[in-house]
Write a structure and sequence with these properties.
Blueprint lengths: L3 E3 L28 H30 L10 H8 L3 H13 L3 E4 L3 E4 L4 H25 L2 H8 L10 H21 L3 H14 L2 H5 L5 H13 L3 H25 L6 E3 L6
Antiparallel strand pairs: 1-4, 2-3
């Protein structure tokens, strides 16, 4: 098959006055920061909160396919929508760039990242290598408290809408990175987390929101039993089924959602 596939792929506190009734400044109460410091801290908190909201909103739009691969992200529109400076938007997009969901092109702007069919195959292959190693180490070392934490990650199934799949994606990432943490290898956990960020859009394609808790329960049982071979088989089964379903859908929708290209980013 010639070429490559391209596809679709986050309070201002009340301030107690330190002034007397007459308006003269009185002594500050014990444990209270100066009012100017409180305002500064509140401003920083608000700025951080809006940046995280912008990040989450754009990320959700990319994962759901609302924003298409190669689509230019309009800075002016975002500054108007959120009523913030360009700097705040850039900070949010920088986080998405680190997750490789957004591509920064000098003198051109910010674009939703293209991923080729070959790159997707490579990422799935790398994920199986990392997760097999992660699960094998974790099965030998995991504690009962870590197992309990894994069991509490998934919420109830709430449908197949965009918001629900955004939650499923976050829960799935947390589940797999928690296992990596239980392996005792911090670098393994870091690498896996970065890879899962790039694969996040495929939770929608996989469509496993309803099945995921049950699939993960099988893996948890093997981890709790410290069954290294069984845990490896469970994770490999999950990952291979995911890869097959994603690839099958991409090929089935050749003339629809996905576009054939030459593997290069559009200019």
């Amino acid at each position: 098959m010639g070429g490559h596939w391209y596809f679709n792929n986050t309070c201002v506190s009340g301030v107690v006055s330190a002034e007397g009734v007459s308006g003269e400044r009185g002594p500050l109460q014990r444990g209270k920061k100066p009012i100017s410091d409180q305002k500064t801290m509140s401003g920083k908190q608000s700025g951080k909160s809006i940046k995280q909201k912008i990040y989450r909103d754009i990320r959700k739009a990319i994962i759901s396919g609302e924003k298409k691969p190669g689509e230019r992200i309009a800075m002016d529109g975002l500054t108007r929508t959120y009523n913030v400076s360009v700097t705040v938007i850039r900070d949010a997009l920088q986080i998405l760039s680190q997750e490789r969901l957004v591509t920064i092109r000098p003198r051109s702007g910010y674009f939703v990242t293209y991923i080729t069919f070959r790159e997707l195959q490579d990422m799935f292959e790398l994920r199986e290598i990392l997760e097999t190693a992660s699960v094998g180490l974790a099965a030998a070392r995991i504690t009962e408290s870590e197992v309990t934490a894994l069991m509490s990650i998934h919420g109830s199934y709430s449908g197949a809408d965009v918001d629900s799949y955004s939650r499923y994606t976050d829960e799935n990432r947390l589940f797999h990175t928690r296992i990596a943490e239980a392996s005792g290898n911090a670098e393994l956990g870091l690498m896996l987390g970065q890879l899962l960020d790039r694969l996040a859009p495929f939770m929608v394609i996989r469509g496993a929101g309803k099945e995921m808790p049950g699939i993960h329960t099988q893996l948890i049982e093997r981890l709790r039993a410290h069954d290294v071979p069984g845990a490896k088989r469970a994770i490999q089964k999950e990952l291979r089924e995911t890869r097959e379903k994603v690839m099958e859908r991409i090929l089935r929708e050749e003339s629809g959602t996905w576009r054939l290209g030459n593997g290069e980013q559009p200019s």
